[in-house]
Amino acid sequence: MKKPILLVKSLIVASLLAVSCDDDNDYKCPEAFTGELTETETNVTGLWKLKSIVTEEEIDLTDDDVENPTTDLFSQYTECQQDVAYEFNSDRSYSFLAGTTAADCENEQTISGTWQLNEASVLSLVASCAKQSTLIEVNETNTEFTIETTYNFVDVNDVVITSVTTSTYEKVTE
Questions:
Q1: With a threshold of 0.90, does the pTM exceed it?
Q2: Which terminal Cβ of the chain has fewer Cβ within 10 Å, N or C?
Q3: What are the backbone angles phi and psi of residue 42, rounded to the nearest 5°?
Q4: For this UniProt entry, which residues form the secretion signal (predicted)?
């Protein structure tokens, strides 16, 4: 069961920290995003919780002695692994939260930085001397957004499966 936990955390960190700082003095950390939000950006301010993770290929991540691959990876994750959220604030700050609200999560993570969403729906994040940009699709009612990425997964039989993965985040309303 440790493999899926490690894989999820590796995917999250790798997707957020696409470039890291090194000791090379020529490298300059990306500047934090500043300025007023656009109307598009204002529509995505708030807390967004991970709702689903679906793959094109069936994958079995659960070591339960039953061969039951599925495209619904979210259902195979523990409560702590499912506990993932983004919080986008109106001052351009954001937080990525993992394992912070579910009970007894051993590996809580919070990554903070600044954010920007352009008119082409490219979400850019700056944190920890790194910038990552990802195309997102926000639904018409601004209540869900999806990110589509190709990942390598290792199933319960140690087989590497490459699959297009769609993660869906749902806006938390007060």
A1: no
A2: C
A3: -60, -35
A4: 1-20
